[in-house]
Amino acid sequence: MKKLFFGLIAVIAVFSVSCNKSSNEILIGEYESLTGAEATFGISSTNGLNLAVEEINNSGGLLGKKIKLITYDDQGKPQEAATVVQRLIKQDNVVAIIGEVASSRSISGGQICQSNKTPMVTPASTNPEVTAIGDYVYRVCFIDPFQATVMSKFATNTLKLKKVAVLKDVKNAYSTGLADFFVKEFTSMGGQVVVVQSYSSGDKDFKAQLTAIKSENPEGIFIPGYYTDVGLIAIQAREIGITQPLFGGDGWESEKLTEGKAKDALEGSFFSTHVSTDNPDPMVQGFIKKYKEKYGKMPDAMSFLAYDAGMILFEAIKRAGSVEADKIKNELAKTKDFKGVTGTITINEQRNAVKPAVVLEIKNGKFVYKETVQP
Ligand code: PHE
């Protein structure tokens, strides 16, 4: 009787261990802001990533297994990003992690990945600090010192501006970083930054800062923030009579940027980003077609980048022939001339991708291709 009892316990134990291991699946984690102020960032990237997973699974999977994606919502909060990344690693036992879009949250999640030796690939975080965390953290996009050069060149050579103002979000690592790099670059190209003003993400009234900016008579305003605030800033700038062009970085990109009154306020403004949907390249147009078929709307930069982040990670796992963390990260580091939907991707020694940027113009609420700037 005793023997039978212990036998039964052993059978149950073995069964539950093998179930937990889901040995026919490769578990990949993802953390994004699916709710909260910046929800379009998370929704666009999870859509793009799911497309990559679906394609790999439909064409036979990875190392003979299916990829299973476990996605958590960090609600747009750095602290929550750390919590869900911890959960992905400790409870779900994922082999690698994709996320986040926003640099502040990638820094917080990246530190957890690094200390647990779990490879992480961020699709879209551009602040240099993200991959500087350590050798388990990678990105498939360019970094902000380059983005600052792109917009400094554009302001100097295309818009012919000599005196500009900067309005930055002090609660956002991406924004403060990009503002600093821009001031340095624009000045080194002979321009003058006449005033730098600050706000905190979520603020609703920017009149004091905009009035201070207006009194310095700049020829343009660089606003390295997220779409959530940029629309309101533009509306209020026009209300107090600022007619000069506004320009910014990839954080502007969202279908929500030009909603309502922001559409007119942002007419003739510019921002740099990772991809233009006007690009006739068959890879770009093919992705747009697939994305539209599945989700019924146009992809944005984050959808493209998350798709590439997934594909680069899956390729690395394939080349590694294993789900061992060290092998995956070594293969990620070797990524070279990968043909992605955001262009050809090579990961450099700092674990960053070296790629061109595009500048888009806002015309009638749409983002229209203006120029490409090579690294
Ligand atoms: N680059 C931004 C950051 O690092 C995130 C972002 C990427 C936003 C692409 C929009 C589009 O925070």
Characterization of this structure:
It is a single chain. This protein is α/β, with parallel strands linked by helices. The chain has two domains: 20-142 and 281-355, Response regulator (Rossmann fold); 144-273, Response regulator (Rossmann fold), CATH 3.40.50.2300. 45% of the residues lie in helices and 19% in strands. It contains 13 helices and 14 strands. It has helices at residues 2-21, 39-58, 78-90, 103-115, 129-132, 144-158, 173-188, 207-214, 227-239, 262-265, 282-295, 301-320, 325-333, and strands at 25-32, 66-73, 96-99, 120-122, 137-139, 163-169, 192-199, 220-222, 246-248, 270-273, 338-340, 343-345, 357-363, 366-373. The strands form three sheets. It has a seven-stranded mixed beta sheet with strand order 7-6-8-9-10-13-14, sandwiched between helices. A five-stranded parallel beta sheet has the order 2-1-3-4-5, with helices on both faces. It has a two-stranded antiparallel sheet with strand order 11-12. β6, α7 (173-188) and β7 (192-199) form a beta-alpha-beta unit. α2 (39-58) packs across α12. It is globular, with a radius of gyration of 22 Å. Residues 13-20 have low confidence and may be disordered. Bound molecules: phenylalanine. Phenylalanine is lined by residues 41, 101-103, 124-127, 174, 250-251, 253, 301-302.
Features:
single chain; 375 residues; alpha/beta; Rossmann fold; five-stranded parallel β-sheet; 13 helices; globular; binds phenylalanine
